[in-house]
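Backbone-to-sequence.
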């Protein structure tokens, strides 16, 4: 399976996270509107990526003839549901610039937790899942 598109999306997502982190470091209150715009753009990209994984990647892995690949694909798919829900709840909590600027410490803490989990997930997919997908 060719997963170059998924790999590019991961790289683009990590760039977007870095840009968001830079905005936060520059000042949450001063950049609340730009932070919100970055979150909206990231959310759209993440939703498309997750949909493509659900439609293409996970079914291919789960139906692989190699039991290790099939089990790993199923495990990753099940784990992803939790992270997707956490991310969507995060974006729902911080869906207005006024909310972000009103509680900069809360936003910063929440964002750190969510994006750390997202970063770890991307790293695991890149190291563990994608090499298996390339075998399918």
């Amino acid at each position: 399976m060719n997963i170059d598109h998924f790999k590019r999306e991961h790289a683009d997502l990590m760039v977007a996270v870095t840009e968001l982190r830079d905005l936060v470091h520059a000042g949450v209150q001063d950049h609340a509107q730009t932070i919100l715009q970055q979150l909206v753009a990231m959310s759209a990209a993440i939703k498309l990526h997750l949909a493509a994984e659900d439609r293409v990647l996970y079914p291919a892995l789960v139906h692989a003839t190699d039991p290790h690949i099939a089990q790993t694909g199923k495990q990753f798919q099940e784990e992803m549901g939790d992270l997707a829900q956490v991310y969507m709840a995060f974006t729902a909590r911080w869906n207005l610039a006024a909310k972000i600027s009103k509680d900069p410490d809360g936003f910063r803490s929440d964002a750190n937790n969510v994006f750390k989990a997202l970063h770890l997930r991307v790293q695991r997919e890149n190291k563990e899942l994608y090499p298996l997908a390339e075998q399918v």
